[in-house]
Amino acid sequence: DIALVSSLQHILYIHIYIVFQTDLPLYYKPWMDIARNVPEFISSHSLRLRIHNMPLLETHLLRTHCELRLAHLALSMMTVGYVWQEGERETIKVLPRNLSVPFCEVSQRLGLPPILIYTDSVLANWKKRDPDGNLELLLTLPGGESVRGFFLVTLLVELAAVPGLKSILDVINGIHYNDVAMVTKALDVVSQAIDMVLILHVTNTYLLFQTIWKDNPLMPEGLVYEEVQEKPMEFSGGSAAQSSTLHCFDELLGVQHEGSSGAFLRRMRDYMLPSHKHFIENISSCPSLRSFVLQQADEGLTHTFEQCVARLVDFRNYHINTVTRYITIPASHAKQLRANKQGLPEELDAIRRAPTALDERGTGGSGIMTFLKTVRDKTKDTFISQCSKGNQDLPDPSMTEIQKAASEFTTE
């Protein structure tokens, strides 16, 4: 399928070959001067003032895909910083025209929404620091080395998935030619890629940013983009659900996400580059891999398919445990401290300043634990043999266990 090959080539080009520009034409220096210093300007509470004093620039001088991507990254970093400069204490309702107008124009040309998304913070936010290939961020947010590590390790996860993405075409071609050996070999590569994604994910700490103005009680009406639209606009924040990688593997293996979780995942595809979204849709339109495995009844093929599903379930089990450890338990602990007004003065001050809107919801606006468990369980349903499904059943942390852990939680 020409469309399938074309969209995959674009994804692999973005993942492997493209070296993003580190700067824009001189005309856009006012953008880059601010975007490169967002953490410092937030710390000094001067970012909003600097953006108000920024000139309104035309966007027609941005001519290449790389220039548009860097512009989108810079404008999105400034937008997030502008909205949340004062945290939850002083949210704003209007994004000024000298930021909103060019941001929406660049977004329209790329087919992306005007908000900081995964495509910006991970896929377009790196450069080679030295000839050895060590990487560095182009732009960052407050959080120092934790933020740097989070974005760069997430990028490495994307790179680890590349062999699996490339093998998807071999799987589809193998089904077309009724070649069991070809499909089995390609699926083995997919399985190894998912395994590498899990290994790298384990090394990463879980870090979330308050970038969202959809389903957020702090901004119930959304955000007005001045001189773009009078009515407030709502957008979900950056989320790993906006990565095309796991969507591709889900579609290939036939994981059927339904209900509110399925609707959320489909909505997240609108936050991807159009070529990524089209590739996922093209995989979905191809003959079913799971049906092919069932029809062939080949022991080796079935085992390899089950192994792929098992790796995906392992990944989602780990994701649930990570969220429990780094979000749910600390959030429960914070609620206890707020209610009882107990703790050291510096601890209570940190609790007061910490954002509360993400206690129960993810950066994309999903009910986080319900969503993750539903996605994991739908992945389990893809197993062909009930025995394989049973081997993946791990107990989920109960609310009693979470509350107990929260009471024993110590803040470092």
From TrEMBL:
GO cellular-component term (any): cytoplasm
Protein keywords: Heme, Iron, Metal-binding, Tryptophan catabolism
Pfam families: IDO (PF01231)
GO molecular function: heme binding; indoleamine 2,3-dioxygenase activity; L-tryptophan 2,3-dioxygenase activity; metal ion binding
Domain of life of the native organism: Eukaryota
Gene3D superfamilies: 1.20.58.480
Annotated positions binding heme b: H319
GO biological processes: 'de novo' NAD+ biosynthetic process from L-tryptophan; L-tryptophan catabolic process to kynurenine
Family listed: Belongs to the indoleamine 2,3-dioxygenase family.
Designated name of the protein: Indoleamine 2,3-dioxygenase 1
Organism whose genome encodes this protein: Sinocyclocheilus grahami (Dianchi golden-line fish)
